[in-house]
Amino acid sequence: MSFKDLSIKNEYRSFQDNIVLDFYIPSLQYAVKYDRAVGYFSSTALIDITKGIGTLIKNNGKIRLVVSPKLSAEDIESIRIGYMNREDVLQNCLLKDFNREFNFFETKRLNLLAYLISNHYLEIKIALIQQSNSFGMFHEKLGIIEDIEGNVIAFSGSLNETSNAFSHNYEAIDVFKSWTADWERVKSKQSVFESIWNNNVNGISTIDFPHAVREKLLEYKSNDLELDLDENEYYYLKKMAVGTEEIKEPSFPLEFKLRDYQKKAIEQWEKNNFQGIFNMATGTGKTFTSLAAATRLSQLQNYNLAIVVVCPYQHLVEQWVKSIKDFNLKPIVGYSSSKQKAWKERLKTHVEAYNLGIKENFCFVTTNASLATKYVQDQIKKIDRNYLLIVDEAHNFGANNLSSKLPTNAKFRIALSATIQRHNDIEGTESLMNYFGETCINYTLEMAIKNGMLTPYYYYPIPVYLTTEELSEYQILTSKIGKLTHINKNGTHTFSDSVKMLLLKRAKLIAGATNKIHELEKTIYPYKDASHTLIYCGATTINDIEYNEFSPDADEKRQIDVVVNLLGNKLNMKVSKFTSEESALERETIKNNFVNSNHLQALVAIRCLDEGVDIPSIQRAFILASSTNPKEYIQRRGRVLRNSPGKQYAEIYDFITLPMRFEEIGNYSEREINSIKSLLFREIERMRDFTNSAENSSVSDKLIKMIENSFSLYKGEIPTDEFKEY
């Protein structure tokens, strides 16, 4: 792009225009050369000259600056009588302006200025009006900017390079463009500047910038350099603007409206002293509700509020960033592979500036893993003013390794989750409640479907039976678990690490049941030409020779690889894995191809879609592996129920694992039947949950009754005895 692509006016006036944001920065971002002659010098003049030149420097551009010092009557008299030579007087005059403390932003820009000088991007000369032995102030106010195509903008007028001129005085500039009828005026002003620069104008004395002043500037050079205008400086410039209404941060997006249930959640949170839990079904706007709450709190705090957002995965961070920007915030994005390479330094300086009151607010968004690091923990602990902590998928922080990382100095708190209750973890759930406070809203999936926030769905349970070998292994594992499990005085169970390993092994056995692949092939076959299909696999393997033929060197084959092979090679479907193994860029490409069904029909995922990934166009899901943990299956169901144009309903095919066929039950003893009842109870519990909100509840109700009757279970309820516990 070039200057010709910009909307450049013929004049700018400070009470009508923001000259810095409307003219300087847009013009300088395409520049390769910037010449400026101004009538007054100060340290802020040098600071302000650096605004907007990040791209100019990246373009290897050059800046030439002609300034004039403000000489006192004593300075002029000293030169006239020869008490001091001219250069010494000028040097002392210029150095005086550095005898003060600079604020956070000024120090940053002085660092940039030192960088420009030391790397020969910037040359400065001093100009004085000289008549006989008399010296006066150079008043020329002229600027010339040139882009890579040779287009030139020349401007002149009353604007000096000072913060006072940018913010308080009434200033105006006239602008001339070389590609218009103004070209002669542009040539004339270029000629004038060259003459001044080369000391070829009668009555004007142009000399080199004093060495001592140059060295003084270089003292501000540090390694913490940012060429681009960051959000801090943008905010700073907005505060300097006159004639434009200051935009507070954060602020509500245009045409943004809260739904009634979101308003009630925020009102209750406010009543709870701005602490609480938003327990909301997937797809009902948890992110926007929390950001709206943050905006409300910020307003009440007169916009003096820091916001820290934490979420499980990097891809969720990026989704949050998009929403955060909608609320007029430009967050620091902190995780291991963040595009903001200097995010750690930025977090540190933001915390310091916020504590000192230099900065009124900032926003930091990070992952669970990055929050837990010593560096981030140390920085967060240093915040000594009010800040709001928002934790997405907060149920994760009930785990011991994460609960200790929740900061104690966060006065305001929001926990977001569709399933805040942790499965088989009473202590973890209580820990979350103690930290975040009361639940402000319980917005269920049924409510969301009824109110049109989510898509109605049809639920089809698909019975899958264990093989003889799998059933035997299941019974052996269950027996070991029972012998090693201890019952506490309060009736709950204590699971040792060895028991937890056995439970995990048994869960993987169920998730990877061989017959699931056979049933998937039969069930998905009618949809082999359809699109927008999702298949959830378990993080497990298939122990079957028939399916290991695709990997002759392995004894086991991952279930996800077997499914991809089945769909892609046997059914000729356009299919792709969607897992943590794919990079963020690859996953984004896969998502885009999935939306465009001509490129991709089906996604095969493990857990990468469980928390927060939005692909609303999913029409149907085949769930091969789903634990009894409500967190997992509620989130997976939520992925399928997102609204999408043209999507009237969704379909869910849930593969229910049963120990044996109904007609074979008589072949097993009562003891053997009892050993597999825990599996039946868990599968029924999930089926009931799915059935309660489905459009076709009669289908699964029939299967539930068959299981209860055939296996002599407690009908109509899930017992709280040892069968359910393990």
From TrEMBL:
Residues 267-438 form the Helicase ATP-binding domain. Gene3D superfamilies: Endonuclease Chain A, P-loop containing nucleotide triphosphate hydrolases. SMART domains: DEXDc (SM00487), HELICc (SM00490). GO terms for molecular function: helicase activity. Residues 529-684 form the Helicase C-terminal domain. Keywords: ATP-binding, Helicase, Hydrolase, Nucleotide-binding. CDD domains: DEXHc_RE, PLDc_N_DEXD_a, SF2_C. SUPFAM superfamilies: P-loop containing nucleoside triphosphate hydrolases. PROSITE patterns: HELICASE_ATP_BIND_1, HELICASE_CTER. PANTHER family: GENERAL TRANSCRIPTION AND DNA REPAIR FACTOR IIH HELICASE SUBUNIT XPB, RAD25/XP-B DNA REPAIR HELICASE. This is DEAD/DEAH box helicase family protein. It comes from Exiguobacterium alkaliphilum.
